[in-house]
Amino acid sequence: MAGGKIRKERAAVGSSNHYQGGIQFHKSKGQHILKNPLLVDTIVQKAGINSTDVVLEIGPGTGNLTKKLLEAGKSVIAVELDSRMVLELQRRFQGTPHSNRLKANALYVSSYKLFEPFLLAFHCIWSVILLKLKLNIPYQISSPLTFKLLNHRPLFRCAVIMFQSEFAMRLVAQPCDSQYCRLSVNTQLLARVSHLLKVGKNNFRPPPKVDSSVVRIEPRKPAPVVNFKEWDGLVRMCFTRKNKTLGAIFKQKRVLSILEKNYKTLQALQASHGNDNQMATDAFVLGDAGELSMDMDDERDDVQDDDDMEMDDADTKSDFKDKVMAVLRVKDCEYEDKRSSKLAQADFMHLLSLFNQAGIHFS
């Protein structure tokens, strides 16, 4: 029985005509090797890699995709957390025409926090990433890594990334889609994002618990003229309850308190700088960082509202509240009755400009 089982496993590996190696994979490290050769070919084809491209591959595993990337591009820099995989890559391509065009790096860390070592790799090797990035990243770091890439300068030409399908659908979601969220708005502000193909979990060994999707991310050039920190402050606030009206969101005592505190701080800064109001505004809005950050989505529309006590009641009046509502009720726009889940990029950009014109800033 045992011998028959072993023969079946060998036959399954052989029938795929795909290299697997004799390595035990660790799910805790996100090691799910793509075994379908047709999908590998499709991903490389849709990536549009040129013969002059230097390709960065994160998490190459045993090198099934690496081989195709080497055939398509100028060279491949493979970054891998597991030193066993690095040895496997070196053995696999040793003595082949590809050996001098592959650079495999192992990252040694003392914890399972994958985010930091991969970002370290970007800073170490970015100077040789000339045109294109190809990423096949651990899903645990999808959001922070995506925005770290989009904030990096100089900009890359294109990234082809495999994500968990749910995450990918949020990246490409449009207004009125059920998956449209803060992540969608912020990503699409900085880049054009398109869905290339879906990859079922049975195409991996061992199969993960979820399906995957491949997306293409092309940074917008030139980058949009907007203060990313302030932009994210507005979008984060709007998507705390994306299906509530903006009027309901901005009437909350908590929201009004934050905005009024910002407003008064800015007024004090402007007074202290005399006529140099713009310098005071820039210093306040930019703070210590001017780039867009992004954690996992924080909208809570799936949670039963239990914070009505935070909503401003009819008896609570203030000049500042009237100032905020006047922005939302501007003629020909009437944002008060609109919902974040239905607003496009241009709407958020216009709303931010209206708030700024009224002296209201986000941070």
From TrEMBL:
The chain positions of domain Ribosomal RNA adenine methylase transferase N-terminal read 39-221
- Gene Ontology cellular component annotations, sorted alphabetically: nucleolus
Q: Does the keyword Methyltransferase apply?
A: yes
GO MF: RNA binding; rRNA (adenine-N6,N6-)-dimethyltransferase activity
Write one Pfam family the protein is assigned to.
RrnaAD
Which of this chain's residues are annotated to bind S-adenosyl-L-methionine? H32, L34, G59, E80, N136
Question: From what superkingdom does this record's organism come?
Answer: Eukaryota
The keyword Membrane is annotated on this UniProt entry: no
* Protein's recorded name: rRNA adenine N(6)-methyltransferase
What organism, scientifically named, is this protein from?
A: Artemisia annua (Sweet wormwood)
